[in-house]
Amino acid sequence: MRGLDGVLLDVDDTLLDTRSAMTTGAEAGVRAVWPALSAARAHDVAIAFYEDGGRHFPRFTRGEIDFRTMRGSRLEYAATQFGLPPVAQDAPEVFEEAFRPAFHDAQRVFDDVRPFLSACRDAGLAVGALTNSSQAMTADKLAVVGLSFEVVVTRDTLGYGKPAAEVFHHACELLGTSPERTVYVGDEYPIDVAGSAAAGMIPVWLNRQGLPDVWGEAAAVHAHAVRSLGELSSVLGVAG
Asked: Over the chain, what is the mean pLDDT?
């Protein structure tokens, strides 16, 4: 791809298998909050926590609520879905104390990530990360798996996150590239693909799961849709 100076990547479920790690961590967390739960029941509640049907994480990324409130609200939603006892006042802390070590130990990098990052850097491209996760959580996740970037922008950098255009622009400014010459790679269509397109970047939808409607939606914002970072290497013209 000509006219390209940099690549910014989402972290969760783009670089790291966060869904699996979140489920593992949440299972430990919900069993700490509700010790009587069976392993199977805890797994189901953990999935509900991860899927965030109450849409509390987007409120956190917009800066409307803090991290503790977001976690507590997601627990309350999961409890309501499964008819569990009401969440106690200290539930977010109890959940987090159990969640953190289990989540930490479950971190895994997708196999195509390191070759892709090496290929981009060898091609002279500036490479950074832009995520809606918190600064502390992001630093821990990247340290555990041994990934590092000169530029890492989180929800905490500006106090809010994607899909706000100024967040993408700020990340490009730190990377030293212009938005129109910077690729953004992410797995969530409304947040990553539509958001980066609206910010004037080159959007790439990393569709690892092969969602059936991805191609039409991606075309609507002139995004590239790929199933792996190895495939993206070919699109960008870097050695994979």
From this structure: 93
